[in-house]
């Protein structure tokens, strides 16, 4: 199926360590059929050696060669870890049909790094024993006392509840650069002073959440009574996790919605929570930070749906950049939040600049009928940048997609005269050579890009279906568009594979071999796509079960892909 696919193929990859301490690399392949996107798990292999960029490239290239599709690669989507940058460079050396300019960076990972840059500014670092603290700093450390221990306890509880290794849901920090280290000593001191109020707010909310959860006989019942008295839904307050910025947003969002209940609980002297009571100003800070983080939360949810389209990345980055800029200059916001947003904006700009080294983003944007070149103009791009983007599209079209199997002498209708001048000849039907029904000429093919760009942008809900339905109008350009618009903007499909892996490789069932894990995940995915024959399923189901919870190591090569 993949070898016969008429277009180019796109891939996404990521690494994962299972609960039974085996290191895996998974690869998904992305294509389309009749305008419908298809995502398929290509392979999951154990890589029992250091995940250097070179080693990852060797594994990736071997997978493609085993399937016989190493000459059909267009783009690879992966996170921003430095070893992936090396992997991309090595792949270009090992696969002649792949180029580093077709590297796609997982946008969900970029969003995560931007959020991390903002939220991490509010972490409370443990003070040195001999440090001289001013009154405000002393208050902060008094409120935050024991947070590290509480975090460790909460992590252990999550691990037991989820039945998986702690860290499975943690944010991926690979590629994150602490922008604060680039500041001068004076700038760092100013930043630290300005963000202290937010640190205090988050420390108080974390303490309140932890105490409600872990006081089942006093605060738990008191919290429930507060909610019932206020006619609010009975819910436990979520405590955020320092390794997951999303949880910080969730805690803030809950706190803002349940402010009345939190105020009532902390205001009751019997509950001994008065030191964690939030002032009016602190509630304002909580609301403002929640509003700012909601931008990144919405981006995370949007790009977690299905398989996000690559043409959405640049508009999304522009929107986030605009929002961060506007908020950073909004003097109605707390200075602490504005300062942190400045750090987050630097992280976003770092990855925005990296899109310039990849051609696929701009080409995909132009090939989206809703954008074409108009988006760049509206966004205020310099004309030379717009011209460069158009040149990239035209060069790739001429190089890889424009049909060249027609010579100038082979214009359609060349053989029409003999039939037209000799009506008695019935060896051919005159309509076989009717120019309007024949294949387009070479000149017409050459003008496909011109014709496409000369028309106005139009609202398109399903871009792949639009191009599929316009194949007759743009026979070559449609193929190019379908290839570029099936490039995944994120590696979320690979992460979904690993999420399913937790169900197979739990703490209880952790003795499966790498071979069995590969077979279960791949065949399971292929069967959902209807790629496994019923006869094969019947044959396997009739085989004897393996005794107990044991697994059998089979000879190397038993699971090789047969072409």
TrEMBL record:
Q: Where this protein primarily resides, as one coarse class?
A: nucleus
Which Pfam family would be a valid example here?
A: Dimer_Tnp_hAT
| Single GO MF descriptor | protein dimerization activity
Q: Would you tell me the protein name for this molecule?
A: HAT C-terminal dimerisation domain-containing protein
Q: Where in the cell is it found?
A: Nucleus
Question: What top-level branch of life does the organism fall under?
Answer: Eukaryota
- Keyword Zinc carried by entry: yes
Q: A single GO CC term, please?
A: nucleus
Entries under InterPro entries matching the protein: HATC_C_dom, RNaseH-like_sf, ZnF_BED_domain_contain
Q: Keywords of this protein's UniProt record, alphabetized?
A: Metal-binding, Nucleus, Zinc, Zinc-finger
HAT C-terminal dimerisation domain: from which residue to which, for each copy? 448-526
What PANTHER family does the database record attribute to this sequence? ZINC FINGER BED DOMAIN-CONTAINING PROTEIN 39, ZINC FINGER BED DOMAIN-CONTAINING PROTEIN 4
